Amino acid sequence: MMKTLLVRGMLAGLVAGVLAAGFAYLVGEPSVGDAIALEESHGTQAHDAASHDAASHDAASHDAPPHAESPGRAGSGDAAAHEHSESPDHAAESDAAPGHNHGDDALVGRGVQSTLGLLTGVTGYAVAVGGLFAIAFAVVQGRVTTLRPRVSVALLAAGGFAVAVLVPFLKYPANPPAVGQAGTIEDRTALYFGFLALSVVTAMVAVAVGRAAADRAGAASGGLLGVGVYVTVMAVAGALLPAVDEVPDGFPGSLLWDFRLASLGTQVVLWCALGLVFAMLAEKALGRGSRDGHAVTVRQ
Amino acid sequence: MSQTNVVSVPRPTAVRIPLREIVPWAVFTTVLALLVLLFVTTEAGAVSLVSDGLVHEFVHDGRHLLAFPCH
């Protein structure tokens, strides 16, 4: 049964990923393209304007500022750091600067990045999430909810989107190319994933608390308590954790808005499709094993 | 005349997959999923395993649009 659910979860993820990639291509790519164009035309000024930590290289090319090292970054000793610590001149002619070449001389051209790369990235993410989603459903079904499978799946998808995407997004929203200082990528990544992990763990605790309360005080009270616990913890954490605001001076606000909306929209499409497809597949998978008791619907 | 429709409903026995059956799959899936997610979301940004930036550039747009810190 678990194997069936897992395969179906990943299948639902595949469908969701393809749809989300289509949405991202149609709605998101224009603003990504605009942001890259902006980064390459006067991106150096934009990077320098936002840069507080002495990106003192003479920013002759677009490639130079991202190689400015923050003190924390210099000691990290991984291969990328070594590449990053090369002189700007060398780096400018090197193709091996991760993610900072959007032009024709990049390792992967824009044409591939915005189509096949986008599809691969989004679909890979969606399949992985679909697998984890199936596991979460298997744990939750019959324990936290005794609703019919497709209803459980719908609730889980809504909750999963809120916990894994929406709440982290509210604190650390998506940024287009040209927004964000290269030197702080490690800090920003740590903050984002830290907040994401806190969100997931808090949600698990909140579900357990809510479930325990529901046994005594009813489902509505349990649900409210669970949501209350989650919202309270995340609101406090969100208020305490440092903000990230690295939008360069002169970066168009409308472009930032368009990009962030498209980014959120991509995730909405992904989780909606994942929930709907998996709801259908899980209902079929579990329906077979439990026709006796559970397939009872009372219609007047 | 109120018509009462009292239907005797067998208590729904929601399927509950034993944890013993879930755990091995959960471990397996989590490890694989995290590996995939690492490549899609983080590789050659803050963490680098293969380090030439090829993966990073390939999934670049997806990473941005899925709201992960890219660079």
Automatic annotation (TrEMBL), chain A:
<feature type="region of interest" description="Disordered">
    <location>
        <begin position="41"/>
        <end position="106"/>
    </location>
</feature>
<keyword id="KW-0812">Transmembrane</keyword>
<dbReference type="InterPro" id="IPR012666">
    <property type="entry name" value="CbtA_put"/>
</dbReference>
<keyword id="KW-0472">Membrane</keyword>
<protein>
    <submittedName>
        <fullName>CbtA family protein</fullName>
    </submittedName>
</protein>
<feature type="compositionally biased region" description="Basic and acidic residues">
    <location>
        <begin position="80"/>
        <end position="93"/>
    </location>
</feature>
<feature type="transmembrane region" description="Helical">
    <location>
        <begin position="116"/>
        <end position="139"/>
    </location>
</feature>
<keyword id="KW-1133">Transmembrane helix</keyword>
<feature type="transmembrane region" description="Helical">
    <location>
        <begin position="261"/>
        <end position="282"/>
    </location>
</feature>
<feature type="compositionally biased region" description="Basic and acidic residues">
    <location>
        <begin position="49"/>
        <end position="66"/>
    </location>
</feature>
<feature type="transmembrane region" description="Helical">
    <location>
        <begin position="222"/>
        <end position="241"/>
    </location>
</feature>
<feature type="transmembrane region" description="Helical">
    <location>
        <begin position="190"/>
        <end position="210"/>
    </location>
</feature>
<dbReference type="Pfam" id="PF09490">
    <property type="entry name" value="CbtA"/>
</dbReference>
<feature type="transmembrane region" description="Helical">
    <location>
        <begin position="151"/>
        <end position="170"/>
    </location>
</feature>
UniProtKB/TrEMBL annotation, chain B:
<keyword id="KW-1133">Transmembrane helix</keyword>
<keyword id="KW-0812">Transmembrane</keyword>
<protein>
    <recommendedName>
        <fullName>Cobalt transporter subunit CbtB</fullName>
    </recommendedName>
</protein>
<keyword id="KW-0472">Membrane</keyword>
<dbReference type="Pfam" id="PF09489">
    <property type="entry name" value="CbtB"/>
</dbReference>
<feature type="transmembrane region" description="Helical">
    <location>
        <begin position="22"/>
        <end position="40"/>
    </location>
</feature>
<dbReference type="InterPro" id="IPR012667">
    <property type="entry name" value="CbtB_put"/>
</dbReference>
